[in-house]
Specification:
single chain; alpha+beta; two-stranded antiparallel ribbon; 8 strands; globular
Length: 249
């Protein structure tokens, strides 16, 4: 019997650990100020120090943690100013990417982007915000992948993930999803017309404008509901959700 060749992709352990830690941060099992004990975490997860160190180096590059020599690893604070900086960075990266991507985007790409945008809106109305977030990332990566500079997508993805895997409570808003989908539609229209001035305006002055989106940002990131004082006195026990001190694990 001829069995067709099948390619199985297994994520590197470093990536798996990164995703695990991001989920722990997003679930508030690790909070700003918590220290992460590398050896204890290695024992808890049953893996060696090397992939843990690699994962934490990646998280440091993404701005999520501080690695303090001879002291340990600490989760960074997440502030409104951080969000403003991330928005500005995402806008800059996308505008730069569009400078070359615009020559590679065709009608089929625009069609797919419209379909994805419709799915995002549909997910919002059914409160499926996890799928909506994934689709949103896919929407943007379609044209980022078409840029001449392939490293832009990596920089964009690292910055984008910082907005969603954050140590604050998230309050989802259908209203904001609708606004974002409207902005996506206007961006697609500008792309179809090859109007770089309009494309830049859609990206920089609307979609990734901190000033324009601030009303929704303040509602989405519920900073007030996370007790940072208590966080500094408590320890997160990864995977068990128990708190008993300052240090994680």
């Amino acid at each position: 019997m001829n069995v067709p060749a099948t390619k199985f992709y297994i994520k590197p352990l470093r990536e798996q650990v990164c995703e695990y830690l991001k989920k722990e941060i997003g679930s508030h099992n690790i909070r700003p100020g918590d220290m992460i004990n590398l050896r204890q975490l290695s024992t808890e997860l049953g893996i060696s120090i090397t992939p843990l160190r690699d994962a934490l180096l990646q998280l440091e590059g993404e701005g999520m943690v501080h690695i303090l020599p001879r002291r340990g690893i600490i989760l960074r604070e997440f502030t409104l100013k951080d969000i403003e900086n991330y928005y500005d960075t995402l806008a800059t990266l996308e505008c730069h990417a569009m400078g070359s991507a615009i020559f590679n985007i065709n009608k089929e790409h625009c069609k797919v982007m419209r379909e994805i945008n419709a799915q995002i809106l549909s997910c919002a109305y059914t409160n499926d915000f996890d799928t909506s977030r994934t689709l949103n990332k896919t929407f943007h990566t379609i044209y980022l992948n078409l840029a001449d500079n392939s490293y832009i997508q990596t920089l964009w993805s690292n910055t984008w993930s910082r907005l969603y895997y954050c140590p604050t409570n998230i309050v989802h808003s259908i209203d904001w999803e609708i606004v974002c989908c409207d902005q996506h539609d206007r961006l697609i229209e500008a792309i179809e017309k090859k109007d770089m001035h309009k494309i830049t305006s859609c990206i920089k002055d609307e979609h990734w404008s901190f000033k324009k989106q601030k009303e929704y940002i303040l509602r989405y990131y519920d900073f007030g509901s996370v007790d940072k004082t208590a966080s500094k006195k408590e320890e997160t026990n990864i995977g068990k959700g128990r708190r008993a001190g300052r240090q994680v694990l």
